[in-house]
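Quick note —
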Amino acid sequence: MTGTLTISDIALDAIQRYPDADNPSAFLAVNQGNSYHTLRDTPGVIVYRTAGDYLVQFGGPFAPADARGPLLASFVDLAARQGRQIVAVQLQAADAGPYLERGFTVAPRSPST
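Predicted structure written out below.
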């Protein structure tokens, strides 16, 4: 039996393959309407949506640790080519470093009351 993989299947595969990306909101990555950024010859995916002048990224890169930096750099380049800014939501503490290194403002989410 053969089938066609959708891009959300590729995102789901990345989430399952790289559990060290560890994001409890990973289910957002396979919602309908998302876009997926990949980099040739680099494993993993960045999940986002376009909203006006922004690319809204859901979670950090779903990728092995050594691929996250190159994926993020490529995503930053994509946003610049489109004249958009990136807003990343649901980042985990382990994801913050590469974002800070690239000049992002990173703020912790306040706990619910």
